[in-house]
Amino acid sequence: MTAVAPEHRGGGGPVPRQRRPPPPAPESRGRTEVGDRAATVIALAAAREVPGVRQVHEGGLPWTRASRVTVRGARAEIELSVTVGYPAPLRDVARRLREHVTRRVAEQAGLRVTRLDIGLDVSLDTALADRATDRATGRAIGGAADQDATRPAGQHAGRGVEGGRP
C-alpha cells in the first residue's frame, strides 16, 4: 500500500507513486546470439594479447590461412593463423594461445570453444635477420671496416683503416 502525506489527503493533491511491474523472466525477454564475425573479433583480439605473438592474420594471404570462428549455438570452432617471433618456444606460445583465447571467448561471448586449430608462422626479428645474413656472407657487422663491393680487394672506404687513404 502506498502512503500519502497527511496534508494532501484532500482532493486535488499529488498522485501516489505507482509501483512498476516486475521485469519479465530472463527466458521470456529474448535471446542474445553472438555471430561468427563478433566471435572472430574477440578471438583475434585475445590472440594478440598473448606474449610472443607478432601478428594475427585476419584475412587469408596467398601463403597463409585466414583466422575465423564458426558459431553453432553456444559452441565455437576457431581457426587461428598467427606469426610468432623467433626464438619464441612454439609449444609454449601455442599452449598460451589455447588457454587465453578459450577463456576470453567464454568470458566475453559466452561461447564454449569445442575446437581451436592454430597455424603458426615464424618471423625473424629484423635485427636478427640482418645478423644472420651478415654471418652467412662473411661480412663484418656495422662500422667503418665494412668492405665496399665496388672497390677491389685491399682498398677500403674510410679513414684509419689499414691500407686506406685519408
Mean pLDDT: 76
> Beta fraction of the residues?
15-25%
Gyration radius, in Å: 32 Å
The SSE order reads HHEEEHEH
Pick out the low-confidence regions: 127-166
Structural class comes to alpha+beta
Largest sheet: 4 strands, mixed
Helix content bin: 25-40%
DSSP summary: helix tally: 4
| Spatial gap, N to C terminus | 104 Å
Shape: elongated
Tell me the total number of β-strands.
4
Structure description:
By secondary structure, the chain is an alpha+beta fold. The protein has four helices and four strands. The protein has helices spanning 26-29, 36-48, 90-109, 126-137, and strands at residues 53-56, 68-72, 75-85, 112-123. α2 crosses α3 (90-109). The termini are far apart.
Output the keywords:
166 residues; alpha+beta; 4-stranded mixed β-sheet
In short:
The chain has about 170 residues and is an alpha+beta fold. It is built from four helices and four strands; from the N terminus they run ααβββαβα.
What is the secondary structure topology, with strand pairs?
Layout: H1 26-29, H2 36-48, E1 53-56, E2 68-72, E3 75-85, H3 90-109, E4 112-123, H4 126-137
Parallel strand pairs: 3-4
Antiparallel strand pairs: 1-3, 2-3
